[in-house]
Amino acid sequence: MRRLVQVISTAMIMAGASGSGHAAMYDNTNQTHVNAHSFSFDAIDGGIIHLSDFKGKAILVVNTASRCGFTRQYKGLEAIWREYQDDGLIVLGVPSNNFGSQEPAAEDEIKSFCEVNFDISFPMTSKQQVKGQDAHPFYKWVSSKVGIIGQPRWNFHKFLINPDGELDNWFASTAAPESAKIRKAIESLLAK
Predict the structure, then answer these.
(1) Which of 61, 70, 135, 151 registers the highest number of CB atoms within 10 A of its CB?
(2) What pTM does this model have?
């Protein structure tokens, strides 16, 4: 029964793969296996961000917004990106207007806001849906892993992906990127 639920869940995720953002499944010894490396995002400045390009690295995926009370977390995200990027951490910002309509700007404005106000250098995707039926396939996949309790409920929700592309942990919006809890989780993955 559990296997049937996984197959149906995977099929539903992949059925939602059309539109902006990309997803692909890969075959691993004749068994379909979906993990974070199966997904791609349109980049905020053009091109495509393939999460498979980050195999062997830890990835912190964060849905962001420029007009949120948590927007100052951009500073912490940039700090941990600079501190750990040479050790194998990728920080990926995913602008979203899903919560409180706090990311209404166009992508060029979002990019400029992040660079001017927070000197952001980590990769960012184009604006995405992160909840509901129209959510990007990555968010459908990760939401199926964490259940209702771990799904994004506001801006700056964080998912930590291990170097093999599997979900390692999630952190609520209130968890500061540079907090001891997040640092410990990142360092644990980078030490492996």
Answers:
(1) 61
(2) 0.84
